[in-house]
Amino acid sequence: MSNKVIHVLYNDDDILMDAVKQTRAAHHHIEEIYTPFPVHGLDKAMGLAPTRIAICSFLYGLVGLSIATAMLRYIMIVDWPQDIGGKPSFSFIQNMPAFVPVMFEMTVFFAAHLMVITFYMRSKLWPFKEAENPDVRTTDDHFLMEVSVHGDVDQIVSFFENTGAVEVKVIEKH
Amino acid sequence: MYTFSSKLKTFSFILMIVGVLGIGYSFFTAPKDINDVEAILASQHGHHGDAHAEGAEHHDAKDAHVNTAHSEDAHAAAGHDAHDAHGADAHEAHDDEHTHHLKHVLQQLQNKPWAGVYVAALFFMLISLGALAFYAIQNAASAGWSPVLFRVMEGISAYLIPGAVIVFLLLVLGVMGSHHLFVWMDKDVVAHDHLIQGKSGYLNGPFFLIRAALFMGGWIFYRQYARKVSLAQDEASDNLNFKKSFKAAASFLVFFIVSESIMSWDWIMSVDPHWFSTLFGWYVFASFVVSAVTVIAMVTLYLKSQGYLEYVNTSHIHDLAKFMFGFSVFWTYLWFSQFMLIWYADIPEEITYFVTRIEHYNLPFFGMVVMNFVLPVLILVNTDFKRLTWIVVLAGTIILCGHYIDFFNMIMPATVGDQWFIGAGEIGSILFFMGLFIFVVFSAISKAPLLAKRNPLIEESKHFHY
């Protein structure tokens, strides 16, 4: 089993997009692409599955709403229903307008923060994490496509040299 | 070019005819005098015992006096005395109050057909005004996505002319005393009401009509001018007309925000002349602009389904649906801000507005929050759903019904009180104005090509995708 990969470098996002389409058409498997900035439509060209983070966020929002509702109902209505300035603490619904600002903020708070944490966990991002970029130039002005190698290496290298690459490297991956 | 299909034309005429019949029926069956009212109330309370009915009416009378704008404290106090004392005087006072109550209900029932027409007339006129404001915003913002929809928006804004004329006539009829929707127009009421007297420098017939004419004139002027330069741009060889439309849109928006605020005080808030709210103008704006965006989306989807809008794709629909979603939330924000501030402080002169609504309009008042907020948010939150025709039409129908009820809730409590009902008059008015709206809008759309040809942003708009 070979664990060779090819690193193909480009210096233009349009050329990269064309190369991605050619690579997909030639049925080479793209392992990863490193870009210095978001390239519009790259995920579609690579055929990546759409993100589900919005669905997560919606569910987290519901969690926040439930927690806020339960908390306010318990504190203000069940535990110690005091008369504070004549506000009706007899049932939750009677005093609900006063709770809405908190319920709204808690919904947003949970939806936003848990979504961000989900993003960090799914993208494996945390402080002191070792950087994974294979070539420092990809954070500045170069685009790097990593393709797994099966079969004839020379043929694959020449294929990628014809896609407008500025550099093609064969790398032994550990 | 769009040709107004004969089917749709027939449909609009049928709506107008059915609507006129409904409106006519409601005017015909409105009670003429106190005796009719007594018969109506007797049949309403028929299932109670006689004595009970008497008592119930008595209570109703007291409630109504406290809650309606033109109640006089003296009367309420008299009623109270009569209730407490059981002497011979009390009987007399009771009879007096009974007649007074009947007169009051008579006025409410006579207001009912007028109020039904007024709510529907205002609602459809404001939809076309909202479409015009949205059009002006798109122009002033040099939006790149919307130019393919400009002709649709221009078509919808064409209803502004007949719509504004009808609303203006209704206002003139009010000042002339043909109906009693605006209680401050009634000289007898003003004579006994110090609060309205204090406002008569602003709330008086001539000034009211001058303001109305000025605002409507300004809106119609911008609409006609924007349409003219938009059509001229199609034939021109330079972009002078485009620049003109930009400047006109920017100036109109300044005029619009001032006139819209004052319009909402005049035509809507002044039916409750004892009550006031500072964010009311914004609230009314949010209500009709979301309806307008919905109507733009629905007309676009209809024309697209007929094969007329070649360059409109699901991304344009997606954008309109986002605006429907966003403005729905904006409306809710303002609705809740107005409600919560008044509920929280609970100042008597302000809270009566919501007391009448929660007591007598409970289902419409809270039902519209479900229709205007909960359902649109849950339906339109999904990106994929915003691209589906049937979802947008479903959400749009809910939003339009919800915002009709919103206007219903603004006008009815002050004019018909607890005698409200969505019957022949209200539904007839909706159908009539919907028919007129469809007829005017699609006639206007059929008068010009559906694609603004030489708009500098049209290429971007044609290839817009999101």
Automatic annotation (TrEMBL), chain A:
Pfam families: ActD
Organism, as annotated: Flavobacterium beibuense
Keyword terms of this UniProt record: Membrane, Transmembrane, Transmembrane helix
Annotated TM spans: 53-76, 96-120
Superkingdom in the source lineage: Bacteria
Name used for this protein in its record: Membrane protein
Keyword Transmembrane helix tagged: yes
TrEMBL record, chain B:
The organism of origin for this protein: Flavobacterium beibuense F44-8
Keywords for this protein: Membrane, Transmembrane, Transmembrane helix
Domain of life: Bacteria
Residues annotated as transmembrane: 12-28, 115-137, 158-182, 202-222, 248-268, 280-303, 323-343, 363-381, 388-405, 420-445
Keyword hit for Hydrolase: no
Region ranges (Disordered): 68-102
Family annotation (PANTHER family): PTHR43044, QUINOL:CYTOCHROME C OXIDOREDUCTASE QUINONE-BINDING SUBUNIT 2 (PTHR43044:SF1)
Name of protein: Quinol:cytochrome C oxidoreductase
Composition bias type Basic and acidic residues, residue spans: 68-99
